[in-house]
Design goal:
Layout (H helix, E strand, L loop, with lengths): L1 H45 L3 E2 L2 E5 L4 E10 L13 E12 L8 E10 L2 E7 L2 E2 L2 H7 L18 E4 L2 E12 L4 E14 L6 E10 L5 E9 L4 E12 L2 H6 L7 E15 L2 E21 L2 E17 L4 E18 L5 H6 L4 H8 L6 H13 L6 E18 L6 E16 L5 E10 L3 E9 L2 E15 L4 H8 L3 E15 L2 E15 L13 H8 L5 E5 L2 E4 L2 E4 L2 H12 L5 H18 E3 L9 H16 L4 E8 L1 H21 L9 H9 L5 H11 L7 H9 L1 H25 L6 E3 L3 E2 L8 E7 L4 H14 L8 H9 L2
Parallel strand pairs: 5-8, 5-9, 6-9, 17-18, 29-30, 29-31
Antiparallel strand pairs: 1-3, 2-3, 3-4, 4-5, 4-6, 6-7, 9-10, 10-11, 11-12, 12-13, 13-14, 14-15, 15-16, 16-17, 18-19, 19-20, 20-21, 21-22, 22-23, 23-24, 24-25, 24-26, 26-27, 28-32, 29-32
Helix pairs in contact: 10-17, 12-15, 12-16, 14-15
């Protein structure tokens, strides 16, 4: 009996050792066998070559680990992708399978981990680089069962936990093209059971080429496609949008970054089925011709959402604000800066939309925003505050004889309680105008009726000379004096207008006609004689009635003033001449005006300086201070045009050996800066498709160094000529010349501002006294306050 027991123990020991050895052998051999089989037959069954450094498989516990996995491109989907390029790789992939549930036809992975995975998505006109895998793993069509035939049960798949550690994923789109990647991708998910339609995912990513992170949580029901999302985005660089922009624009540079904190629920199949709240901020937005030349920019655009639900017709916003927005609009000889970027009438955008083969993220976002906003005005909407802070909007016009530029600076706009349920919405706008002036507008509107509103506006302090580029182009006569004020009210009910508009121009005055081929001719002095009133003021009220579609302008006041000026003004001619003489005496004693490119004194200026020098010689205690006010930008523009035309003239002159004469200078002055042959020649010389203005082309042609040298010489010639008469009388030490100031003069020309210390010249003192008397007389006393305000403005 004892002997039999010993044999049984020995047999059990041998069996145990055999089982252990078998298990060890299986574990030891199955891993290299699995590696061999996968690498040998992977391409045959998947169409892709797969390699790894090693694999560990434990069939008893269901644990699998693959190290240094590499899956290569198939090379069949896209001819541009080499077969030896890697589609997907990972430092390690681990998974735990439930072996016991295989018997019940259930594949259950309790945990799957991907360590430092790297993948590339490549798309071209043929499709994406993994379309072969989609086709491979797509289930076959369901076979129609015959009567009485039982359905064969299929395997059920569940994965209970998924983790991705520090992944990096690339996206390459060959058509547009787009190259982008995200890094530090970390994902955790509770997975998806075979009998459940819902999957939850926690994620965090970092922008690959740029800055920024995004993290959050999302739950998706794959049956209904309902989702729940919560995400926080910090300084996420939007540079990827620039790549999509290049498909829509002819040129341009873009940058911005995004902050957001959004919670939302919705459905992926129904775009309007969205319920969101939170906030979105776009920072450091810039779009322009070059990184240094913006067309549009904004320091911060902020939207705070209380409820956004298009399907429920709810648009409730706490605030929408723009901090320091900037926009520049420019007109050129051909098109404007917006059409230069996007094509004439937005041709580039239309072309991109018409090409179904191209995916453009910007257009998709635009379409989605349109869907969300489609029913805004038919819904319950509310914006507690809509605001613009420190706005800056600039307009440049290069399509006329010389550049016109104006700018709304430090613009402030505020609208509180924009609410469909409120009877009125109030809004205010205030802005300074560069170089001079200010504007304010107040608006009251019925949110339920766009044809029910009130407007009050006030525009003041604009120098009439500001508009000289237009006035010279269309009339040949520049203005060198005048201050414009424009006020009005509009009351509109049911589209019916009741409006009063008041235009006042204080002391407008034309100067000498400019003759060249760039300008048209209109007899402005004659027109001025008709429209100016006796007090040297243009003062008209223009009521407007009718409806918004057919407004009627009532010019009764204008016509009556014209008739009055024709029959009444002649009787006041002596008075007006006396006013003009006094104004001229004061003006020439306080300012010495320089015409563009004028370096030599005119006869009347020489006479004034002789008188001034004699005054100082006779009055030892008197002295003067001179402040040169130089319109540098305009002076250099005139020098630039002249030098460019001169260079062209000399090159194309029939007799290139003759000396440059005064007649040649006059010929060049009268030559049009937009002469067709000259313009074509400049364009050829520019060698730059992004030069749209005649100023840029001329600067490229002659060089800024020459223009700067000519301007410096002009400055020195003026100063030397000014001091000449004081030196002759040995009083130059009592003339203090201050450093020049580069500015935009109120009256549109460079000048020397003269300040007196001590006794005033008798003529000037007398002119002051007489001018005060004239200003207190009718009809000038009516506008006495306006004149003081105009003088105090610049």
């Amino acid at each position: 009996m004892k002997r039999n027991c010993t044999k049984l123990k020995k047999a059990l020991l041998i069996l145990t050792i055999t089982i252990v050895v078998a298990v060890v052998l299986i574990i030891a051999l199955i891993s290299p066998i699995a590696k061999y089989l996968i690498e040998k037959y992977s391409e045959k069954y998947t169409g892709r070559r797969i390699t790894m450094s090693w694999i560990y498989v434990n069939p008893f516990t269901g644990y699998v680990h693959i190290s240094s996995l590499k899956i290569f491109e198939s090379g069949k989907q896209q001819t541009l992708i080499p077969r030896d390029s890697i589609f997907f790789s990972a430092n390690g992939i681990s998974a735990n399978f439930s072996m016991l549930k295989l018997a019940s036809k259930t594949i259950e992975i309790s945990e799957a981990t991907l360590d430092h995975p790297r993948g590339s998505i490549i798309q071209d006109q043929k499709g994406v680089n993994f379309s072969d895998l989609i086709k491979l793993f797509t289930p076959k069509k369901t076979v129609q069962l015959k009567p009485g035939q039982k359905k064969t049960s299929a395997f059920r798949f569940s994965i209970l936990y998924i983790k991705i550690i520090n992944g990096t994923f690339y996206y390459h789109e060959k058509v547009t093209p787009i190259d982008y990647f995200i890094k530090e991708v970390n994902i955790e998910s509770s997975g998806k059971r075979w009998d459940s339609d819902t999957m939850s995912i926690k994620f965090s990513i970092r922008s690959g080429p740029d800055t920024g992170t995004a993290r959050g949580f999302i739950t998706i029901n794959f049956k209904t496609m309902d989702y729940r999302l919560a995400t926080v985005i910090q300084k996420f660089d939007l540079k990827i949008l620039e790549q999509y922009m290049k498909d829509l624009i002819n040129y341009g540079n873009f940058r911005a970054n995004l902050d957001a904190d959004i919670k939302a629920t919705g459905n992926l199949k129904d775009q309007e089925n969205l319920n969101a709240k939170g906030w979105v901020v776009i920072n450091d937005f810039h779009f322009g011709k070059t990184p240094e030349d913006d067309y549009a920019a904004c320091e911060k655009m902020s939207i705070k959402i209380d409820t956004l639900s298009p399907k429920k017709h709810q648009y409730i916003f706490d605030s929408i604000s723009f901090n320091h927005p900037y926009f520049k609009y420019e007109r050129y000889d051909y098109l404007d800066n917006v059409e230069m970027v996007f094509g004439k009438n937005g041709a580039n955008i239309s072309a991109a939309k018409a090409d179904p083969a191209k995916f453009n993220l910007i257009l998709k976002i635009s379409d989605y925003v349109k869907v969300l906003a489609r029913n805004f005005f038919q819904s319950d909407y509310k914006i507690n505050r809509l605001a613009i802070y420190r706005g800056n909007f600039r307009f440049n016009d290069y399509a006329i004889s010389e550049k016109f530029s104006a700018e709304a600076a430090s613009l402030f706009f505020l609208a509180d309680s924009i609410d469909r349920n409120h009877p009125r919405v109030q809004a205010t706008l205030k802005s300074g105008i560069k170089p001079y002036g200010e504007v304010s507008v107040s608006l009251s509107i019925n949110p339920k009726d766009k044809e029910d509103f009130d407007i009050r506006y006030y525009l003041q302090g604009l120098p009439a000379a500001l508009f000289n580029p237009y006035i010279v182009t269309y009339t040949s006569y520049p203005l060198d004096r005048g201050t414009l004020e424009f006020t009005g009210t509009w009351n509109v009910r049911n589209g019916i207008i009741r409006s009063v508009n008041h235009l006042v121009i204080i002391d407008p005055r034309t100067t000498k006609r400019i003759r060249n081929k760039d300008t048209k001719w209109i007899p402005v002095p004659l027109i001025m004689a008709l429209i100016r009133e006796r007090g040297n003021v243009i003062d008209y009220e223009i009521p407007i009635t009718g409806d918004l579609k057919d407004p009627k302008f009532h010019l009764h006041d204008v016509l009556m003033d014209l008739l009055s000026n024709i029959f009444v003004k002649p009787a006041t001619t002596p008075y007006r001449l006396e006013v003009k003489n006094m104004e001229s005496e004061i003006e020439k004693s306080l300012n010495l005006k320089w015409q563009m490119r004028q370096s030599k004194l005119l006869p009347n200026q020489e006479k004034f300086l002789v008188t001034m020098a004699e005054f100082l010689k006779k009055n030892p205690d008197a002295s003067i201070a001179v402040y040169p006010m130089e319109y540098t930008e305009r002076e250099k523009e005139h020098i630039l045009f002249f030098e460019a035309k001169k260079k062209y003239f000399l090159i194309h002159s029939k007799n290139q050996d003759h000396a440059f004469t005064e007649d040649d200078s006059v010929t060049i002055d009268k030559m049009s800066i937009r002469d067709s042959l000259f313009s074509r020649y400049l364009t050829k010389q520019a060698h730059n498709n992004l030069m749209f203005t005649i100023q840029e082309k001329c600067s490229s042609y002659v060089g800024s160094t020459l223009v700067d040298a000519k301007f410096t010489r002009l400055h020195n010639d003026r100063e030397r000529g000014f001091f000449l008469y004081f030196r002759k009388n040995a009083v130059e030490k009592r003339v203090i010349m201050h450093p020049s100031e580069s500015t935009i003069p109120y009256n549109g020309a460079s000048f020397y501002k003269i300040s007196y210390k001590g006794e005033l010249p008798e003529k000037l003192a007398k002119a002051y006294r007489k001018m005060n008397e004239l200003n207190n007389e009718s009809p000038r006393n009516k506008f006495k306050k306006d004149r003081k305000k105009a003088k105090a403005g610049p």
